[in-house]
Design goal:
There is one protein chain. With about 375 residues, the protein is of the alpha+beta class. The chain folds into 3 domains: about 100 residues, Aminopeptidase (3-Layer(aba) Sandwich), CATH 3.40.630; about 120 residues, 3-Layer(aba) Sandwich (Aminopeptidase), CATH 3.40.630; about 100 residues, 2-Layer Sandwich (Nonspecific Lipid-transfer Protein, Chain A). The protein contains 11 helices and 17 strands. The strands form 2 sheets. The protein has a 12-stranded mixed β-sheet. A 5-stranded mixed β-sheet has the order 15-14-13-16-17. The two termini are about 25 Å apart. The model has no long low-confidence stretch (mean pLDDT about 95).
């Protein structure tokens, strides 16, 4: 079996396999190979067996964007299943991501057991909540003083800066850098509204698509309560036309603290899985706001990772005046399995939970103090 990067000449082959795997009815894009994405194709003497794609992303943790490979479109041709095609593709993808400096990897699993076998584990959520219009109408009124208008191409850089100002404060969010994320495509949506103050400073924005019975909101980003309530007022302006709004939850403070939710809500949750591809690189790239006040400190780890031998074995996590880092050596007192690294790094699970799941052995309170998150990490992008 051979693995290579696919090219535009493989377009029909790859999209045929994707259609079989995901039952897509929409026509495929014009191009297979696009900037910010790398595709891998498995072949046997020129016969295609399967493929996957790695997106060039970066994900915020502790206020810093950590390079991340977003794995998607993992497919195996039906005739080739059971021959280790997916396993070979994933092992190759891990090496490729490490070579390209992507210290983390995230995917949305259709077959969790497969990815767990290669070190990915659940580390956060992607959520949508459906509001009935009567509930939105019960929300607080928007203050006066802010204006709204339709976005233009000249506004895209400011919109990205506005998004970044929010996303850097929310663990798990992508930084949405080009070319993997094309901001200009937002202008094709039915709604892209900006909210700004009297001096023209952008305070937030809204993107949405009109569907038959609802408004599907992708981004509602406001940097302060006034901006969020102003954008909320635009949603309520659809009353009488639509009965429901579907909102992607990027900022739980907005949905939990500013809207009038009922006791029961229709929330669609997708779980994403994370894998730490290169532990020293990931720790060096992440922000560690909780490290203040705990220097000096250290914990000796024994990293068990058969698919990433470059960071397996005895490792010492050190917190000192130079920051937080992972270096070779130590006693290996705390045994950490590959599947434990993602949930710990994201802050979604404590070491106590990881011990109960059999993914960590030993006492490591420093790990909890370092990565403890104020909420569940979330992504506002599906790939």
């Amino acid at each position: 079996m051979e693995i290579r990067e696919y090219t535009e000449a493989d377009r029909d082959t790859v999209f045929r396999m994707r259609k079989l795997a995901f039952a897509g009815s929409a026509p495929p894009p014009d191009r297979l190979v696009t900037p910010g994405r790398t595709g891998l194709l498995a072949e046997d003497h020129g016969q295609p067996l399967g493929s996957l794609m790695v997106n060039d992303f970066a994900q915020y943790f502790g206020g810093r964007a950590v390079p991340m490979g977003g794995v998607s479109a993992v497919v195996v041709d039906p005739h080739a299943r059971g021959r280790g095609v997916a396993s070979t593709l994933l092992d190759t993808a891990l090496r490729t991501m490490r070579e390209r400096g992507q210290a983390l990897s995230v995917l949305y699993p259709t077959v969790p057991a497969l990815y767990r076998g290669f070190g990915w584990e659940r580390a956060g959520v992607h959520e949508r909540v459906d509001f009935t219009m009567d509930r939105l109408l019960m929300s607080p009124r928007a203050p006066r003083g802010l204006a709204t208008r339709r976005a233009t191409e000249a506004d895209l850089a400011d919109a990205h800066a506005c998004y970044t100002a929010f996303a850097a404060t929310a663990d798990g969010m992508l930084d949405r850098h080009a070319p993997a994320f094309a901001w200009e495509k937002l202008l094709d949506l039915d709604v892209m509204t900006l909210v700004h103050d009297d001096e023209g400073a952008l305070r937030g924005y809204l993107t949405a698509e009109r569907e038959r019975e609802r408004l599907k909101v992708d981004d509602l980003v406001g940097l302060d309560p006034a901006a969020q309530l102003t954008l909320l007022a635009e949603l309520t302006s659809w009353a009488g036309v639509l009965g429901k709004v579907s909102l992607r939850i990027a900022d739980p403070a907005f949905t939990d603290l500013l809207t009038a939710q009922a006791i029961h809500n229709d929330v669609k949750t997708s779980q994403w899985m994370m894998r730490v591809v290169d532990l020293p690189a990931a720790v060096a790239a992440r922000g560690w706001p909780n490290a203040e006040g705990m220097r000096p400190a250290a914990v000796d780890l024994d990293v068990v990772d058969g698919h990433a031998p470059w960071h397996a074995g005895p490792r010492r996590l050190v917190v000192d005046d130079d920051g937080v880092r992972v270096e070779p050596g130590g006693t290996g007192a705390v045994r950490v399995h590959a599947r434990a690294l993602g949930p710990w790094f994201s802050g979604v699970q404590s070491t106590r939970a990881l011990r109960r799941a059999g993914l960590l052995e030993g006492d490591a309170p420093l790990l909890d103090r370092l990565a403890a998150a104020p909420g569940t990490p979330r992504l506002a992008d599906f790939f």
